[in-house]
Design goal:
The chain is built from 7 helices and 13 strands. By secondary structure, it is an alpha+beta fold. The chain is globular. It has 2 domains: 135 residues, no CATH class; 111 residues, no CATH class. Strand 10 and strand 11 form a beta hairpin. Strands 4, 5, 6, 7, 8 and 9 form a 6-stranded antiparallel beta sheet that branches. Strands 10-11-12-13 form a 4-stranded antiparallel beta sheet. Strands 1-2-3 form a 3-stranded mixed beta sheet. The longest helix is centred in the N-terminal third of the chain and has 11 residues. The N terminus is likely disordered.
């Protein structure tokens, strides 16, 4: 099987990207696969990736990109069980619709105290590097877990927490990349496990109301923000995303 197809079939579902790929295969026992992946998520690993990413450019062929970032397949027996590279947060990447076309995103960063610190996103389309998004320039910082411990977990569902996030709404613009917009709203990705990936977390984010649907050629997502008071959810605003870009911000406070 084509190596690039093998990689993408693991990272994503139901897509095939044609072309060649130079992969290093690493055989691992059951017990140390997770340890090997975690080592690639450390800050030191990201700093190594950061130096390599300086050599990545728009239009770079994917096989060369794979070589530059030193992408490797982790194998148990004859099965590819993961794909790693220094600083590659694979569960956060994948195929997304960006504007009128689909791209494959490779997210680089590290995990600190259970939080994903996203730094760089490389988008690939038609077997070439299509776009490089420098999240470090956009990052307002992940959730500070020490601050959370001081305020308590109830802060995330409180009116105070919601109002803190609402103040950041002024940083979000129509047409902005979804990942950048969520960072500007103070959202962080909290690790569940290597298998289960990460979930979105922010003060005022009503995670259980999140919705995603496909209408025609469009992928539409809605992120709901508000607070819980007297066991009742009060909706504040909705960030609507179409094809990975912010399309609308709906204020709902007056309807609560």
């Amino acid at each position: 099987m084509n190596k690039r197809i093998l990689l993408i079939s693991f990272m994503l579902t139901c897509i095939i990207i044609s072309g060649c790929m130079t992969l290093t295969y690493i055989s691992r026992d059951n017990d140390d696969v997770q340890k090997f992946v975690y080592e690639s998520w450390t800050k030191d690993a990201y700093l190594r990736a950061q130096e390599r990413l300086k050599d990545v450019y728009i239009g770079m062929p994917t096989d060369k990109f794979d070589d530059v970032v030193q992408l490797q397949a982790v194998v148990k027996g004859k099965k590819v069980v993961d794909v790693i590279a220094d600083g590659l947060l694979r569960p956060l990447g994948g195929k997304v619709k960006d504007g009128d076309s689909y791209v494959t995103e490779f997210v680089f960063g590290y995990v600190l105290r259970g939080l994903a610190v996203q730094k760089t996103v490389v988008q690939v389309r038609d077997d070439k590097v299509y776009r490089i998004i420098d999240l470090e320039a956009e990052d307002l910082g992940p959730i500070d877990m020490r601050e959370v411990e001081i305020k308590g977990p109830e802060y995330f569902n409180s009116k105070e927490g919601y109002l803190d996030t609402k103040e950041k709404l002024k940083n979000v613009e129509i047409g902005m990349n979804k990942r950048v917009a969520l960072i500007k709203l103070g959202c962080s990705l909290v690790e569940i496990s290597i298998k289960d990936g990460f979930f979105l977390m922010a003060s005022g984010y009503l995670r259980n109301l999140y919705s995603q649907q496909e209408i025609g050629d469009d992928v539409i997502e809605e992120y709901y923000f508000g607070y819980v008071e007297d066991e009742k959810e009060h909706l504040g605003f909705i960030v609507r995303v179409i094809n990975n870009k912010v399309s609308e911000i709906v204020l709902e406070e007056s309807k609560s």
